[in-house]
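Holo prediction. Input below; ligand is coenzyme a persulfide.
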Amino acid sequence: MIRDEETIQALVATVERFVAERLRPLEAEVSETDQIPPDVVQDMREMGLFGLTIPEEFGGLGLTMEEEVRVMMALGRTSPAFRSVIGTTVGIGSQGIVFDGTPEQKAQWLPKLATGEIIASFALTEPGAGSDAASLRTTAIQDGDHYIVNGSKRYITNAPQAGVFTLMARTNPADKGAGGVSAFILDAKTPGISLGKPDKKMGQRGAHTCDVIFDNVRVPAANLIGGREGQGFKMAMRVLDKGRIHIAAVCVGVARRMLADALAYAAERQQFGQAIGDFQLVQAMLADSETELYAAECMVMDAARRRDDGRPVSTEAACCKLFASEMCGRVADRAVQIFGGAGYMAEYGIERFYRDVRILRLYEGTTQIQQMVIGRELQRMAKAGEI
Ligand code: COS
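Structure of the complex:
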């Protein structure tokens, strides 16, 4: 749903300009230094990018899903590490509070997230619980008006910068499944929280992940999201449903960028006395990329609109994430192929994108998890006679 076409067009145009003029020139430097310059993060704050999905009453822009995906498609047209700066605060780190937070929790945390004063991280994955998210072992045991948290989380995006964690932990150790899991808002400064070494990743240098270790961390009971135990897994799943549409939009943005780079190279690179883009075999790779990109774009827009209409979108979100991330991987591969030997060389930048986009098929649910979500729903519908 677009609330006001002119306003969203202006926002998308601002993001496009920011990407073209401010972020693209810094791509190689960010990759070399593994740091996003602080003044770029400050610019993002001033543009309101941290508050894209925070309701207006708490100082954010309160974008609808359709508006959010349009912005993400624009922001995606540069190194994905830049999107990652705001990604967890706009997405999985904050949305549990937006969906289920009590009025007090929203009032306390959302204004600071909207301005980017603090960054939110989503702490679900553990050394032993990834795809099987319900098997998490971190515990939060009630002790008077506090919970005592023990355990560790793994590959937590933006943990080194986080001011707050949305933490999923088991409040009922007798229930080993999803029903024993609750969600908390955890101030990153709480004593007993420590961070592991920054992970050395395949790509997306400039975006940081690490382990987060909880050693007898005392969390006020008032920080239990929504004030109800046992709702944490379902909240995380609803957060991920939305996050998967967001990531699919990022996939469309990055793939558009890689295709544009491949097209520019194909027009300039001469072989056999002509531009390689004039060869039909190269055109086939470009055409396949455009076709898949268009399909992904249509899927993402449709899923976003359905969500804005209040319809259930778990299956559509999984379809989008699956198709768009796999599409992005194929477009990256073809772009490297079109660049030929130059595609393997760091100075041309396309090999960096090839590595950067690999994670898109893994986080917020692997392709195989998306298949599982879709497959289960199809089975359910068939049994219920809905197909
Ligand atoms: N929205 C709301 N509720 C949901 C839901 C969703 N999308 N998905 C599941 N639930 C509910 C179920 O309805 C069920 O509720 P009841 O117990 O009341 O029936 C409960 O949650 C447990 O669901 P289920 O039995 O399907 O859980 P599973 O353990 O089988 O796990 C998958 C389901 C595999 C889909 C889930 O673990 C998953 O998405 N894993 C990947 C996690 C992930 O993306 N990790 C990346 C980390 S973040 S970067």
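Residues 232-268 form the longest helix (37 residues). That is the main takeaway for now.
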